[in-house]
Design brief:
The chain has about 210 residues and is an alpha/beta fold. The protein has helices spanning about 1-10, 30-35, 80-85, 105-115, 125-135, 140-145, 175-185, 200-210, and strands spanning about 15-20, 40, 95, 120-125, 150-155, 190. It has 2 domains: about 1-40, no CATH class; about 55-210, no CATH class. Strand 5, helix 7 (about 175-185) and strand 6 (about 190) form a beta-alpha-beta unit. It comes from Myxococcus stipitatus (strain DSM 14675 / JCM 12634 / Mx s8).
Length: about 210
């Protein structure tokens, strides 16, 4: 965790999203905060483990994170999750827009979430998968662009058939809109796999986020 954080901060990152999967480092989050680094936690992040469960079978959220994925359609939590959402149980959570196979993975599900007034973390790469799968209409995408309850925007590229976390290109779907939301104060989180890139390529990704290429 510490090595990854140091590499990103050396590039000029203004803040870090802490996600599951990195090998634990002692005193990690506390050390970042002592250095004045703003952090947001995501999904099953745990500073002491690779990951932790997010949903119980009865759809109780088991983590205290700034944003979480909703459950997969095959998860035991799937049916009770929808019922709990409709009862107002998740209005304090920020739920990420997903792709087919997950709750919030279709345009109909996003319409349902907006009608309920749920807070969203909009992952534009996931929306690209929805579009290429034929489950996200232009009308729903336009409504989502103006939705007031967006707490985060997540940004990466993919070929439309999987969540590949590829580097951004100038024509990446949703990039221009993501920049505009960032300019309005919404946190913009770059989620491409930077560890696979050279330092120069990493700097290009930063420039694309900021529209300074």
């Amino acid at each position: 965790m510490q090595d990854a954080a140091d590499a990103l901060l050396a590039l000029g990152a203004e803040a870090l999203q802490l996600t599951p999967g990195n090998a634990p480092s002692h005193d990690f989050v506390e050390g970042l905060r002592r250095r004045g680094v703003p952090v947001r936690t995501h999904h099953g992040f745990d500073a002491r483990a690779l990951r932790r469960p997010v949903w119980s079978p009865s759809a109780e959220c088991l983590v205290d994170a700034d944003s979480v994925h909703p459950p997969r359609d095959v998860d035991p939590a799937s049916a009770p999750w929808r019922q709990r959402a409709e009862s107002g149980a998740f209005h304090a959570l920020t739920l990420e827009t997903m792709y087919p196979g997950y709750a919030l993975g279709t345009g109909d599900a996003l319409t349902w979430a907006m009608d309920l007034g749920l807070k969203l973390a909009v992952d534009v790469s996931h929306l690209h998968i929805q579009r290429t799968s034929g489950v996200l209409s232009g009308a729903v995408w336009r409504r989502l662009q103006d939705y007031p309850l967006i707490d985060e925007v997540h940004l990466s590229a993919n070929p439309g058939d999987r969540d590949a976390h590829h580097p951004l290109q100038p024509d990446t779907f949703g990039l221009e809109w993501a920049r505009a939301r960032c300019a309005d104060g919404t946190p913009l989180i770059l989620e491409c796999y930077l560890h696979r890139l050279s330092d120069d390529a990493r700097k290009t990704q930063w420039a694309l986020c900021r529209d300074t290429t």
